[in-house]
Amino acid sequence: MYLATMGRREHAAKGKLSAVGANVFALGAVSLVTDVSAEMVTAILPVYLVLGLHLSPAAYGLVDGLYTGATALLRVVGGYVADRVRRRKVVAGAGYALSAVAKLGLLAAGASATAIGAVITLDRTGKGLRTAPRDALITLSAPEPLLGRAFGVHRAMDSMGAFAGPLVALAVLAAVGAADPAAFDAVFVVSFCIAAIGVLLLVLFVRDHRTPKAAATPVSPRAAAALLRGGGVRRLLVAACVLGLATVGDGFVYLLLQHKEDIATGWFPLLAVGTNLSYLLLAAPLGALADRVGRLPVVLGGYGALALVYLLLAGPVSGWPLFALSLALYGAFYAATDGVLMALAGPLLPESLRTTGISLVQTAQALAYFASSVLFGLAWQFWGPDLAIGVAAGGAVAAIAVTFAVLSPRKVTA
Fold this sequence. Notes:
Layout: H1 2-20, H2 22-52, H3 57-68, H4 72-85, H5 88-109, H6 113-141, H7 147-176, H8 182-205, H9 221-226, H10 231-245, H11 250-261, H12 269-293, H13 295-314, H14 320-345, H15 354-383, H16 385-406, H17 409-412
Keywords: Membrane, Transmembrane, Transmembrane helix
Membrane topology: Multi-pass membrane protein
GO molecular function: transmembrane transporter activity
């Protein structure tokens, strides 16, 4: 009896995963490989800029803001073009290719903060182009009741790459020698090679989802603007802005841990490993939970975890408990919010304008993040890290309350 019950449960679990669709797994494989490449750079970038090039916290805040927010408006352009030409895979592929080339650009940038900013902008241009078409393909490749699980599976695969990336960077630094000036260049070259493999996987294995012309709503600037007339979409954009303002960014979180515990430069990439391990373990379960209990409660719980991270960084806890709790909660924050927010947005948007609508949400969040990163860098510069992170914790709590007020199920569906 026990074995029969377990067999039925295993069969049901496999059925749910297969219902997610092969295209979701293919997109997950592309994201996995691409995130190995991206996180190799992300893991070393804060220490490279602040400790290697001696940028001030305010200057780093500007660069960190560029890393996520400066090309946010291009997301809308990319999303609209993808819907207009009905070729989401092509637009996503162009974005992945741009980000791959940018890894080589970091070699040419040298120690110039201006050149580094330009290369980072190119890299984020690629991310801005690819993210909305990719997420739209996920929403179009899985049944609506399983969107949380589909995004959870994708984000779990994505986080596998994010988990491996810092380890690969650490291995490259160890092989070359962290003190060697060429060590960072070696990381950038390896990162480019891995990113190129991700582009190849996209070309070979991801299937596009093209809405038949007869069934498609005409895609035009007027139709795209009409999305903003829907009350649910407007409230979602407000919530995305508020939540973006509550996020100070990975680099600052890891620099605060480094500041508090005096971590050696060679071990800095392991901070991202801890976060991504938590993300990897929790992404699929929290995505499935969002399908069962509702996506909004899971998103709000994720931002509650983020507020706790900020409080830990501002509090008296130190040593391994600080590392364990902070990185576990930070990974839980990403697992509960990254894909779940897109799963929340998908059903509110018509299929033919799905990419445009998702890009609007992502743009609102990215622009708010850009402002948050710059403001937090200035706060650290002039108030000190402890007061700055304390204010950020209060902002995260306020963002949870505002988001709950504007995204109640009754209002979103109105």
